[in-house]
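fwd from M.: "can u put these together and see what the complex looks like"

so here's what she sent:
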Amino acid sequence: MSETKPQKPGPAPGDRAAIGITFGNSNSSIAVTVDDKAEVVANEDGDRQIPTILSYIDGEEYYGQQAKAFLVRNPKNTIAYFRDFLGKDFKSIDPTHNHASVHPQDVDGTVAFTVKDKAGEDDEPSTLPVSEVSTRYIRRLVTAASEYLGKKVTSAVITVPTNFTDKQKAALVAAANAADLEVLQLISEPVAAVLAYDARPEAEIKDKIVVVAELGGTRSDVAVVASRGGLYTILATAHDYEFAGAALDKILIDHFAKEFMKRHPGADPRENARSLAKLKLESEATKKALSIGNNASFSIESLSEGIDFASTINRLRYETIARNVLEGFNRLVESVVKKAGLDVLDVDEVILSGGTSHTPRIATNLGSIFPSSTTILAPATILTAINPSELLARGAALQASLIQEYEAEDIDQSIHAAVTTVPHITNAIGVVSVSESGDEVFVPVVLPDTAVPARRTVYVAAPKAGGDVLVKIAEGNTHIKVTKPEPKQAAKPNGNSKAAKVEDADDSDADESDFSEDEEDEEEKREKVWNIGATLAEAAIRGVKKGGKVEVTINVGADLGVTITTREVGAKGGVRGVL
Amino acid sequence: MAATLVSLPALPERWAAEKDFKSVGKLTKDSATQRTIEPVGPHFLAHARRARHKRTFSEDDRIQAQERAKKVEEDNDSEISEPEDPMMLQREAKDWKGQDHYKVLGLSKYRYKATEDQIKRAHRKKVLKHHPDKKAAAGRTEDDNFFKCIQKATEVLLDPVKRRQFDSVDSEADVEPPTKKQLVKGNFYKLWGSVFKAEARFSKTKPVPLFGDNKSTKEEVENFYNFFYNFDSWRSFEYLDEDVPDDNENRDQKRHMERKNTNARKKKKAEDNARLRKLLDDCSAADERIKRFRQEANAAKNKKRLEKEAAEKKAAEDAAAKKEADEKAAKEAEEKAKVDREANKKAKEAAKNAVKKNKRVLRGSVKDANYFVTGDAPASTIEAVLGDIDLVQAKIDPDEIAALSAKLTGLKVADEIKGVWTDEVKRLVGAGKLKGDEIKALKS
């Protein structure tokens, strides 16, 4: 980013008023940070999710929910779903979703929209490039935020999808600058969502693998993020334009259109543009209602040929007719986990973000593909989940509050590739310990995909009797062990007697086996097992007290040099060695 | 992994290493992948800080801890962190009007920006330090002069009306306009910007437009100057009033003093307005932006004028060119006509010559034919033949003469010549141009 933006100098850090903006294809949000707590701000209409739509009537500009309503009455002067066109050539855009609003046009290869944005009867309609449309829209967002804060918003952190090209980023920065907004930083959407969760006061920074499923109105983006000591690394991403909110709307549209035709044989309301727009609006509302309640009504006045239409639908029915789409999300998420070279067992958290994530079925479906140890962070599964529609804006606002006190140049230097690109270790580094049954067990200290330099500390118990102990540091990795169900016989896989001294990888699973003993598991059992790899170092701690603990700190330097410090907890000195 | 379930293995016997540490393996380049971490979140900031300053974890921890510790200290101490001027401590409380209340409370870096809370806290700190009872304990009795100064300063600063009066004359908060020497170094906008930032504190209307920099738009700059030329100031000068005697004995004296004070205030206010105006004049005179905007405006105006002139010039040139072209055309036509005339003349002459020549041929032919007689031709015959020839010649046009002469040239035999002549005569008679009786000699 730093090399693509010719940004004009922004205000001095002291004069900044910074917010977080999510500039989405369907909806946008603005958030501010007050006392380290990010809060999504409602605009003057009271909306926190502001539709990314601009509409012009008699020279008056409308945006957000008001503009969205004009999709029915004034589609020819309403611009919607334009974010993804920013910085793109006309030949590479997908205008599907613009069917019911102003159609994008090819102006010298770039994308533009023609609307009548002036009041006069004889004024020519103007052709606005998509950058100008974005600037106008961002200006409205900034105005709304300024009104809320009571002072002029000068700077913002904006979220972008992970597949935004440098050209698109540059176009977005330029559009924001044209709206008198300094862009402090562009951050990728999945990371903004992780940040929003990690910034909660109760959250502790753990090493974890997070899948961020961002299910939006027109596109779904899924990313696997390794969160290591609060540093985030994206391991894999996938983008899908089929399984998104619009696909669910489409199912409801078709459902109710058919029902309407059943009652009133005649014209298909989907054939008429205005009826279709009405259907779409109401379907979206019904979809949202079904995310909250078990039943939702659907009613449109004068749907087609002046006939009013009212109906209801329950959640079960909805989930049945939408099954294909809902299951598509599962496949999408699974494919990304695979792409990252991981297994569902490696995933510690799934964060659902974006408006479509409110759908309860998606969360429960995802719960079924991940093991029970994986937390699915969605309103349907966890009561304390953050509103998925607000995650991104919150993350952006938090980032804005973190960096607003830095000079723009400082920020640029910090996000430079020289700082952000670092080696990530492939294998875990850990301590070899023994379980109660005498098997060797790998206690990971530094997990795979941890960015170096890294420093981790672990506390391992010494043998109950105390005395001299061996601290053996080794590399390790995981494999997925599949245990076939052994009918009738609930015996533990009894490999542990011989395993005591053998460093065979397959044996180190014995400590887990007592879990599975009594379970009547019809399916095969899959579990994650650590293999002990090459030994890196050995150290001795002498004279550990009874019931004592040993602290092991592993410090991996940027040059992959490893420093190991180990000592008995509470004791002085200790052993220190460098590899 | 629960650390309770597992424990470290006991040290095998005969395990020994120098300093109890044995390095076995090493991380190689193969054991790492280059990836990009997302530049987001507090922990990334820490990472960036470490990476850019090349600090290790422990160094960074220590520096951060120090910085945090210092901050706490500053928070407690910031208001009275200023050293106290020993001269100030010697001040007489009677002379409170001359004292710098902010300095007394240790708030001289905040001045008009100091909040009420800051003033209260500063006051409390100073009281704790300078309370006369404490001084008495130290053996210095009756030394409450500076304490009174503190009380007075707090009284003034916590009363909004009095504070405004003091702020109005608080010259310490003024920023002197930059000298030419300073401006030579080039930070024009920064220097003047701070001057007007200080002036802005007197403004009744907020927010006050900023001076800006050389990238400010014309609108911003105009807005700034308009604002300051129409500056609505709350500055007043009661604070500098001379003391009005408080006795009832001399009412005239009292009124006189009050009048004097009022006049003095008015005068000072007028002076202050004039001062600000001068400041603005000086500043705008040196402001490159204004010059630039003027040049741009001129350029725009000039552009119009130049365009008009260019259009006029072009029209004139076009007309001249057209005239020239017309003249040229006329001249050419004339010359052409002349050439034509001459050519005509020449042609005519040539034709005449040809006719003459042909006529000579005709005459020569009959002479060659010896006038169609054998032996010496009698004069009458010659005359008759020549008369006929002349007649024929007169009747036919030059082309026919030429044709006839062509037929006759080369003929030497008299009969043939005569035949040609008689044929010609016949033709002419047949054509009705000649009457048979007119011809005397050339009848066949």
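replying to her w this: The mean pLDDT of chain A is 84.
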